[in-house]
Structures are given as structure tokens and as C-alpha cells.
Protein 1
Amino acid sequence: MSATAASLRRKIATAGDLESVVRTMKAMAASSIGQYENAVRALDDYDRTVQLGLLACFRQPLPTTLRPRKHANDETIGAVVFGSDQGLVGQFNDHLGDFVVETLAKLPGRKVVWSVGERIQVRLAGSDLDVGVQFPLPNSIGAITTLVGQVLQEVENRRAAGEIGQVYLFHNRPRSGAIYEPVSQRLLPLDDAWQKEISARSWPSRNLPEIMPGGEQTLFAFVREYLFVSLFRACAESLASENASRLTAMQRAEKNIDELLENLDSDFHRLRQSAIDEELFDVVSGFEAYGR
């Protein structure tokens, strides 16, 4: 009996320690969600400014150097996929991986995937896609800028070498009423359809903009910022979704641990009460035998 009680005590202590770890991870995930969601909201005004700048530039003829270039491998698609480096995120990488495979399967040509996060790379490695460079996932808002610079450099090098034509972004985005949803965006090329989409927007005031001399350099600067904002937003939304998924997983784990502790406590008290009953029975039996 004592050995069984000792075993239950160890299980209760272990479950209590695990619950403390889970609560800590919950707090960290909740804090991180707010951090990344604030970063996404902070991008809204900047993104609007960049797109207004592009709108102003498109009032002039588009420089020939910005027009899509034809290469032998224009049919090759490069895909940047933001996943996770760490586990305990439920089906975060599985759902995104399935979405990437299904979406790219509908597009013609060869596909090369650049993964951001070790877990999503492992998930995509089992598909028919050509998995290329893997980038480490940032662990803070400040580190996203460095990652975006590395990704843009890789994309530019591949496009300059004529190895890819189109570039797509894939990531999980926070969604109201759900944890997240996988989304995609065509990042490059910046073709006539993209220009028409920007140009179709209206200027927010009656004071129409005027581009000073050096308009081509201004346009290229806005294009760089447009690409930067697109990648930064995708990374921040992915990190917010990852932590939301981790928070949900920790909430389920905490509930399961609470139920386990409740069952263990019940078993321990029942065992303890049984031992007390046995001892009382022995005392009563001894007393009755003594009385005879």
C-alpha cells in the first residue's frame, strides 16, 4: 500500500511541475501574440503611405527597367513559406504545408521552396516540391528586419540569374473567430496587373501629388519598401498565428493536466481512506478479541 501511495505522490508532484511549465508557456505565448499583432497594426499606416507613393509614381510612365524581364526560366516559381522552428503548435505546419502543396500544384512549371522555420521545411521535404534554402525563424520583432533582408537578397540573386520568374508568399494569418488560416500572395513580378491594381485607387485629397526630379529613383525606393512591408507583414502574422496556436495547445494541455490531477488526487484519497479503514478494522478486531 505504501509503495502505491508513494507512486501516486510522485505522479501528482510531476503533474504539478508540468502544469507550472504549461502556465509559463501560456503566459509567454499570450505576450508574444500581442507583440506581433501590434507590429502588424503598426505596419498599416506605413503600408498605406507606401502605396500612395506608388500611386503618385504611376501617374508617370513606368520605367522600362521596372518592367518584367523575360528569362528562360520564367515558368519556375519560387515560394517563400513561413512556418515554425519549435513544436507544441498543433497542426500549424501540417495545415500550411497541405495548403502550399495544393496551391502550387495548380500552377504550371517547376517550384522551388524557401522555408522559414525548421519544422515547415521538414514538412515540405516529404512532398514533390524542390526544397531550397532554409532560413531561421526570428524570435523577436527586431530580428524580422534582418530576415526580410536575407530573403529579398536570395530572391533578387535568383531572379537576376534567371533561375526563377514568379515569387509567392505563404503563411498563416490570424483570423477572427478562428486561430489562423493559411493564405498566399504573389509577390513578384510587379507586372501590369499589379500596376493597374495600385493605379485604380483614388487619391485621398484634392491636392494631387507631384513627383520631383529623380522620379525613377523614387519609384524604385517605394517598390523596395512595398516588398519589405509584404514580407515583414507575412512574418509577423505568421508568428502571431504560431503563438496563438501554441496558446490553444497549452490551454488544452492545462485542461488535461487538471483532469489528471483531479483523478490522481481522488485515487490517492481513496487509497488513503482504504488504508485508514483497514487500520481501524484491525484495531476494532483486536479490541473485540481482547474483550473475549
Protein 2
Amino acid sequence: MQVDGERYVMRVPGKSTELLSIDRENEVSNTKAAATTGIGPRVLEHVPGIDVMVLEFIVGSTMSAKTLQSPRMAARMAQSFHRLHGAPSFLRDFNMFRLIEYYLGIVEQQGATIPEGYSDWLSTVSEIERAVDAAALPPAPCHNDLLCENFIDDGTTLRIVDYELSGNNDPCFDLGNTAQEAAFDQDLRAALCEAYFGRPDARQLARMNLFALMSDVGWTLWGAIQAGISGVEFDFRGYYMGRWERALEVLRSDDLRRWMAEASNLT
């Protein structure tokens, strides 16, 4: 929106988003915390009760997978993550494994349709959780939903917007999640990992890859729930089936066991 020649962003909560485990108090608090690092937009106004926020309009280029796919941009992303992960502690925690359990409850409650065979892989999901927990990093303020379009290049810094699903989490989740969203190949994933940790780290790279997979596994359920409750004209079924098909490729691959072994330090 524009007022007196100045541009602002107004965030208005969507319909039934509590079913997606979106906590507006958490979003407002975390947006303010992220702003203190210069990575998130400043909150200029907040209307309690209806949780409408007026945010700083960030002048810059909205990113895409194509614009992020380079070692230079991976290094810039790592710099932004360091600043975000150093923000004051967020209000609530985020754990994709617990979120999957919650979403499965909503799926049952709402009678949502999920991909055939999804539940057959839940024991493997439990194995993945044990693998990533073996070298877990201390929880830090994380975004957790790093679509490419949530990065805005202001000419100096890659800013990060939209803190709906933010929460304290293992930093490797942000790294893996964004690598998945930006369709990073293994070379770019390794570059992002090295830029973030300051050195090559095979174990944390494996954890990144596992969290990238879990992004698809978890957001598959998000899409299935959205297909039933959202009033937005969008092909949510196509979205969640695409997520699940990509997840299945990894779940059925030899890479999965190798990554779990490397993450668990069993190799």
C-alpha cells in the first residue's frame, strides 16, 4: 500500500491458518526480533486482536531459484542466515517432525486427502529424526519457510521476509530448506554449507540434505490441508503431489542411507 508517497506492506492473516500451526503472536514477536538484525523488515504498526501488521517496504529485487543459484549468492545467503540466527530468541520453537505429527492429526480431523502410501514412510521419518539429532546444533531463531521469493536483495544484503512459520530450530533446517526451495544441486549445497560453517563439513552437509528432504515430506501435508481449507485459487493438489513425488525419489534412493550414516557419524 502507499500513503503520502511512501510504500508499506500490510500483512493480514489468512482464513483458518491456525490449522496450519500458524501462531500470529509468534509471527509478530519473531518479525520484530528478526528486524533487530537488519535482515527482517521493521514492524511499523501492529493491531492487536486481529494481528494486522504494517511493515517496512524493502526496496529491492525479489529473488528466484534462478537468481540464487550461484556460489556467490550461496555465500550471501549464509551471511544473512548468520545474522538471522543471531537474533534475540524467538517466541516459540519449530520442529518439522512434531509439525508432521500435528498435520497428520489435522488431516484426520478434516478428512483431507494425502498421497497414497504416505503413512508407509513414517518409520523412515523417525529414522531420519534420530540421524539428524545425533549432531544437532543449538536451537537458533530460524525462518523455516525459505521460499526463494522470501529473499529480497536490497543491493547490499539479502533481506528475509514472512515469518509465519518462524521459530527456534536447528540452523541446518534453514540451510536444507532453502537449498531445496532454490533447487540447489549438491555442489551448491556444499558451497552453502561451507560458507555458513567456514569450512567443509560432511556431517552437517548430510544433515542439510536430510532436512531438505523433510521440507518436502512436511510441506506435502501442508499442501494437502490447504487444498481443503484455502479460498485461494491455486492448484494445491498439484503442489503437494509434486512435493511428495520429489520426496519419494530421495526416500527410495541410495543417498538417503548414506546421508543418515554420515549424519549419525557411522561411516
Protein 3
Amino acid sequence: MILTCPECSTRYLTKENAIGPNGRTVRCAKCDTTWFVASEADTLTLQDNQSPVEEIVQATTEDMAGEFGKNRVPEAPGAHVVMRDKVDKERRRRRLTSVGLIWAVPLFLLFVASILGYVFRQNIVNGVPQMATLYKTLGVDVTMSGLNIEDPITRSALIDGKPVLVVNGAVKNITSKDQDVPMVELSLHSKDGEPLVTWLVDVNTPRLAKNERVTFVSEYPNPPVDAVKLRYRFADETATAAMSGGSAQNLTGAQ
């Protein structure tokens, strides 16, 4: 059977039974024109077919479906897809909430521990003296003895025509129990931090009750002219023993 393209007149040779009793839609391999061939199509003799024989390309239902799919409007997602997305969102929300709680609880406990550690810092140091180093590193005021020397105030004066450095200070018990009061060590230093002179002050109060405070006054005659810094601390037993033999050059008193 000879088939002729109605568009470009290209002719094709095919078997008669390829069309079938119901006819068939075919497509030209040269210009892509499709047309329907009925089963009663006229046949030509093989001698009349002067054009080269080319392969018949069938316009299948898949081709038609492909052309139709190019212009189709996407269908809305089904109910199961919507439900699945909703479940996934809820699952992600619960996961984020769980992760947030995992971090929030330790941070809250750390915050509470920090507050308690600051409020009861002196009690902690009294029980564990090694913690005093940690507190000092963090810049928190704490003492191993439970006593605190308040910042002394210095002034220069003339007594009997001689220059005298007058130091006014105070010692306070910052714990909830009675504390023995050691001597206070004062020292003058140069601009470079070099110690020039050191002396001890006895506050004349051997023991302080909880939260009790005692003041002291110390007078140092003829202080070094290059002294620019005053440093203070509680004297340890070694310093007290070394300076108790009369090397302390000071006048002390408590109020």
C-alpha cells in the first residue's frame, strides 16, 4: 500500500495489514503532518511509487498525550499530600521545641548556680578555700579569711613639724559567724611598683561578730617622697612574727 502525505506529497510504502480494519492515524516523517488513513484507502501499484520509500511514523496515543500534557494545568495536590505536609511541619516544630528545651534547661540551671554562687560566695570559700582563686579570677570580691578591708583613705599632715601619712581604713566581717582579726599590712610603692616601706597595723579588736565593722587609723612619719601607691592586705603569721620585733614604724588605733 502506498500512502501519500497530503502536505508535502512524500509517499510511503507499507503493508496493507498495517492500517487495520478500523484505519489508523499516521505521521509524515518529513514534515510531521498527521492524517487518518481509512481501511478503504486507494492503493497504487508499486510502479507508480517513484519517490523514495520512507518509514511510516505512527502517531501513537503516547505522542498525543505528550502534546496534550504540554498545555495541561497542573492538578492540585491530593488530600493525602496536604496531610503529609502538615504532619511533616508538625514533626519539625516538635523537633525544634525539643532542641530548644535541651539547651534552655542547662542554661537556666547554670544561671541559677551562678546567682547562688555569688550570693553565698563567702560561705563557699570558707568551706572550700581553693575557690577563692576562681572568684578572684572572675573579679568577684571574696576573702579566704571572711574579713574584708575596705579601701583606705590617705592624707598628708604635719605633726610636730614633720610630714606624716595618715591612713584611715576599716575591717568588716562579711560572714555569718565570728572571725578572728589579724593585723593589717600596709605598704608604700613607687610608680614602677617597687616596694619602699611596709608596716603593720593592729586594729585592737581581736574578734569581730558577724557583719561587724571596725575602723582603724595609722600614721606613718616621713613617708618616702617617691611613694605613689598604697597597698594593703591581712598580714600572715610569718610577716607578723618578722615585724613584731620593733621594725614597724607606725602609730595605730581603732575606733
